[in-house]
Amino acid sequence: MASDQKFVDFIIDQVGCAGQITCKKIFGEYGLYFNDKLFALVCDNKLFVKPTQSGKAYIINVVEAPPYPGAKNQFLIEEQLEDRDWLQKLVAITVAELPEPKPRKKK
Hints:
Strand content: 25-35%
Helix content: 25-40%
Number of strands: 6
Shape: globular
Radius of gyration: 13 Å
Order of helices and strands: HEEEEHEEH
Distance between the termini: 34 Å
Largest sheet: 6 strands, antiparallel
Number of helices: 3
Strand order of the largest sheet: 1-2-3-4-6-5
Structural class: alpha+beta
């Protein structure tokens, strides 16, 4: 089941103050980016955040699940979706620890 645009917009609104957040459609679902750095996926109307050590320490009771079959586990965020401040802090912590995206090769 594909994610609803309304749910994606809600998530972007919740984390929007954390910085420059954009989304792109990826295989019928959505990737969330902070200044071109992929930090989360929205799949089946669920938020999956890329795993980091700092994020794990911040979340405390981590729930991990694959966003789609065959994918690596990511942090599944369910309970805290309504907590804007908590989500914004998680995004800031996660993005700070993720490596910079590799430059794309010119065609």
